[in-house]
Amino acid sequence: MVFPLDSIQDFSVVLTPEHEMFRKAVREFVEREVAPRAMEIEEKDEVPRDLLKKIAEQGFFGIGIPEKYGGQGGDHRMAAIMSEEFCRVLPGLSVYFGTNELFITPIMLFGSEEQRQKYIPPIAKGEKFGAFAVTEPCCGSDVAGIQTRAEKVGNKWVINGRKAFISSSDIADYFIVLARTYPPPDKKLRYLGLTFFIVERDTPGFKVEQCYHKMGLHGDHACELVFENVEVPDENRVGEEGMGFLYAMETFDRTRIGVAAQAVGMAQGAFEKAFQYVHQRQAFGVPIAYFQAIQFSLVEMMAKIFTARLLTYLAAKLADENRKEFTFVASLAKFYATEVAEEVISEAINLHGGVGVIRETGVERFLRDVKITQIYEGANNIQKLVAYRQLIRILREKGQIPEEVAKLVT
């Protein structure tokens, strides 16, 4: 009944009055400050700096960051709540939270105390922004195949290479960059030899090149990065040399919860628009919500949103409890919530009829936005593989599957 978890209590999603107070505060801010400007931001594909400043003043960039490093504290559930509420109105804004988290997480988990003290407080306060530079033109899901190199010269590292599709990189001040520092021992261990480095924006030889015109998540830009003999001191190396791949995977395990929450928020936003529309739009002398087919659609949409939300918050709760199982639940939540959100949003457009494909209605953009969540931070087919392998690893550690079987199936 409870497999692969241990107890029926493991399936509980614990949310407190503090979580609800926070949710209300975020929603009130988003409705007041973001909603009136959402269409302008969507059209211009640009978030005004004054809006980012207001978000910083609310302390939202510090959610999930310990007070010791200038943050507001909070847990994964609180961060998921925030992403969901922002994505209900303007999904592109939530990407800034995600890229900051991607930058911060490996430093918090594996970096030095000096790195934490230097780089995390400015991000927590919204004074600086971070970006996560892993993906390359050659390599997306195949992280171990990246070609950017870092060579040690004295007490410095010299980085050469290119990165692609790096979110928030046009405004980021700090970048955490994955580069190969030595060749892998063999094909099975090709993930070894990758190392993380912190690169500051004004470092000579580093530049942000073209930014892409994306189909969705407008307001946040993905760009190419170029490294030409970029020198960084050894103190900017994050963690042990050669362990960057494992650090990246640990990071993604946590940030995928945020992607699932993004998708839930988009589905919720589209559903609310559809629900309101079908009770206003009349056909044959009655609101179209009168028709059974419409009612069935609304109920099916609600069921999908509820299940995606519960799975997402379960992953967040398990992560807050530091349970090993959170890793495969986070992968389940990421691929499931993003797939379900696409279905809900597509149906919301159908319920709007012709006006559903008009930009001014504000519903079609959710479909363009959600497609990106199915791809970044691990494409969904990769997520299914990752979830399975994480599950087998956990069951092997619990002694519930023999070592020889685990090796065969993974």
Quick structural summary:
By secondary structure, the protein is an alpha+beta fold.
Could you characterize what this model shows?
This protein is α+β, with helices and mostly antiparallel strands. The chain has three domains: 8-129, Butyryl-Coa Dehydrogenase, subunit A, domain 1, CATH 1.10.540; 131-242, Butyryl-CoA Dehydrogenase, subunit A, domain 2, CATH 2.40.110; 246-409, Butyryl-CoA Dehydrogenase, subunit A, domain 3. Helices cover 50% and strands 14% of the residues. It is built from twelve helices and ten strands. The strands form three sheets. A four-stranded mixed beta sheet has the order 1-4-5-8, covered by helices on one side. A four-stranded antiparallel beta sheet has the order 2-3-7-6, covered by helices on one side. The chain has a two-stranded antiparallel ribbon with strand order 9-10. The protein starts with 16 loop residues before the first helix and ends with a helix. The mean pLDDT is 95.
Which strand order does the major sheet show?
1-4-5-8
Could you say which structural class the secondary elements and strand pairing correspond to?
Answer: alpha+beta
What low-confidence regions span 5 or more consecutive residues with pLDDT below 50?
Answer: none
Helical element count? 12
Number of discrete domains: 3
CATH class membership of the largest domain: Mainly Alpha
Name the shape in a single word: globular
Tell me the number of strands.
10
Percentage of residues assigned to helices:
40-55%
Can you give the mean pLDDT?
95
Strand content: 5-15%
CATH third-tier fold name of the largest domain: Butyryl-CoA Dehydrogenase, subunit A, domain 3
